[in-house]
TrEMBL record:
Homotrimer. PANTHER family: UDP-3-O-ACYLGLUCOSAMINE N-ACYLTRANSFERASE (PTHR43378), UDP-3-O-ACYLGLUCOSAMINE N-ACYLTRANSFERASE 1, MITOCHONDRIAL-RELATED (PTHR43378:SF2). The keyword Acyltransferase applies. This is UDP-3-O-acylglucosamine N-acyltransferase. Pfam families: Hexapep, LpxD. GO terms for cellular component: membrane. Coiled coil: none annotated. It comes from Vibrio ziniensis. Residues 24-88 form the UDP-3-O-[3-hydroxymyristoyl] glucosamine N-acyltransferase non-repeat region domain. The keyword Lipoprotein does not apply. Pathway: Bacterial outer membrane biogenesis; LPS lipid A biosynthesis.
Length: 344
């Protein structure tokens, strides 16, 4: 169990402490269940009425809520960001691998390996691979020929990195993700599919996190590119030659077709579908189940998913949708008759 004093907590968060700097916490907990030894936080002002009843050792709040707190208070600019930093400091998640190279791992003789590298059981690291300092490769991973992993990058179990893929520093890749698989490239000759070799690669920047079971295809000719500080959720499909800009976040189940360019600081909601060969501007938010069929040229929030209805309501809506053409024809006829009447 890790512990922190409130003085250490203040240093980690950059907050202003009001209370006992020597008090100790060991856990982050929700406000309604926090007990002595816990730190909790308020990120939504509508829950401020519950602050007075909190039993937490310390509460992280904005200045506007400080006087509502019954005990030790840490005033921070953004309580949710402070929560993230404290949770990191108390994190006890085990490393994907440790204590060097496992006896059952297969590592080519010419692999260039930095200091303090750990490789888990049954992992395979092929010829020409370069691994930076403090790289951790989980059990059962495959690292293809001439791939490169930067300092402090971590791969959980069963990640597959194909040949020639480059991944930057401080990246985290969750289990069963595949990076560098072939893009969906074929030509059709009289009904017969002819495979087009995908000779590009995947270039991933620094501080990128990729969820479990996500697939990122290699480029057909140029590279698929993921810029720095991008976060990708579980079970995404990123097709060949997609380019994702700095600081963009994409939620689970999203599919991006080939050669699409997504700008910086975009937020893509879960289960969205993005067409190929289009451009999405910087700062665009697409709400869940968005279907993006054409380029988006201005920042802002965009939606297209249909909210849930009762089955009875949905059946009525579907019936009306099927009658749109008929209704449109009738409306035009009415407009025509009104125009003729006005001209008379």
């Amino acid at each position: 169990m890790k512990t922190l004093t409130l003085a250490e907590l203040a240093a980690i968060t950059g907050g202003e402490l009001h209370g006992d700097s020597n008090a100790i916490i060991h856990r982050v907990a929700p406000m309604d269940s926090a007990q002595e030894g816990d730190v909790t936080f308020l990120s939504n002002p509508k829950y401020s009425k519950h602050l007075a009843a909190s039993k937490a050792t310390v509460l992280m709040v904005k200045e506007s809520e400080r006087t509502l707190c019954p005990s030790n208070v840490l005033v921070v600019a953004d309580p949710y960001v402070a929560f993230a930093k404290v949770a990191q400091a108390l994190d006890l998640t085990p490393a994907p691998a440790q204590n060097g190279v496992a006896p059952s791992a297969v590592v080519a003789d010419d692999v260039v390996m930095g200091t303090n590298v750990s490789i888990g059981a049954n992992a395979v690291v092929e010829s020409g691979v370069e691994l930076g300092n403090d790289v951790i490769i989980g059990a059962g991973c495959f690292i293809g020929k001439n791939a490169k992993l930067g300092n402090n990058t971590k791969l959980w179990a069963n990640v597959s990195i194909y040949h020639g893929v480059e991944i930057g520093s401080d990246c985290l890749i969750q289990s069963s993700t595949v990076i560098g698989s072939d893009g969906f490239g074929y030509a059709n000759e009289r009904g017969e599919w002819i495979k087009i070799p995908q000779i590009g690669s995947v270039k991933i920047g620094n501080r990128v996190e990729i969820g479990a079971c996500t697939t990122i295809d290699r480029g057909a000719l140029d590279d698929t590119v993921i810029e720095d500080n991008v976060i990708l959720d579980n079970q995404l499909q990123i097709a060949h030659n997609v380019h994702i800009g700095y600081g963009t976040a994409m939620a689970g189940g999203t599919v991006v077709a080939g050669s699409t360019h997504i700008g910086k600081y975009c937020i893509i909601g879960g289960a969205s579908v993005i067409n190929g060969h289009i451009t999405i501007a910087d700062g665009v938010t697409i709400t869940g189940m968005g279907m993006v069929m054409r380029s988006i040229e201005e920042k802002g929030m965009y939606s297209s998913g249909i909210p849930l209805q009762t089955n009875k309501e949905w059946r009525k809506t579907a019936t009306r949708v099927h009658r749109i053409d008929e209704m449109n024809k009738r409306l035009k006829e009415v407009e025509k008759q009104l125009a003729q009447k006005n001209d008379a």
